[in-house]
Amino acid sequence: MDGFIRFTNQTQGRDRLFRATQYTCMLLRYLLEPKAGKEKVVMKLKKLESSVSTGRKWFRLGNVLHAVQATQQSVHATDLVPRLCLTLANVNRVIYFVCDTILWVRSVGLASGINKEKWRLWAARHYYYSLLLSLARDLYEISLQMEQAAHDRAKREKSLSQEPLGYSVADEETEWLQSFLLLLFRSLKKHPPLLLDTVKNFCDILNPLDQLGIYKSNPGIIGLGGLVSSIAGIITVANPQMKLKMH
């Protein structure tokens, strides 16, 4: 109970719970819409989804400052690739949150002259760039872990045999796809934070892909992706050790 209270006392914790509720409503609404006699339930889910989405805006007003702080921290990463990817990703997150705040200002009636579609498109574009760069960082980290796993396995096989097997993921004489997938599985299994971050970013990117028309999805896919991403986010907020660290 104490852990739950500490979690909900955090702005990010409350936002993750609201986000999970929002995408759960979207997913359930998609599943129930084709069914007869579910019109009232669908309408209630739609209203709840809208209310939760509006409520999340209050939690996200301070996210610009959090994104600026994250940008300052990522500049000091020692590895060039993560430093470049994370810095650019966080810059795009800053722009995304600025656009999101402007859309919120329009939605509450503080400024009526704002072009909603233009700012929504800009927000989606910079959110997409941020997630794309974050995924690039994840892929880089995965490649490092797979390289290390392949090196460790080669050393073990060499120690077990006088005649080295010369194991390599890319060896054409082996089942390269099977070897690749095995290394990928072992690498992610040994590094749960990397797995969580990759899953989260992959699920998140489905929404801007749909908004920008790059890859159209239905509300069910977006709702499921958002729910999975929210659960991953809840885990990282509740247990900071599961958050992927910079190095």
From TrEMBL:
InterPro entries: PEX11 (IPR008733). Pfam families: PEX11. The keyword Membrane applies. Keywords: Membrane, Peroxisome, Peroxisome biogenesis. GO terms for biological process: peroxisome fission. GO terms for cellular component: peroxisomal membrane. It is found in: Peroxisome membrane. The keyword Membrane applies. Its main location: membrane. PANTHER family: PEROXISOMAL BIOGENESIS FACTOR 11, PEROXISOMAL MEMBRANE PROTEIN 11A. This is Peroxisomal membrane protein 11A. It comes from Callorhinus ursinus.
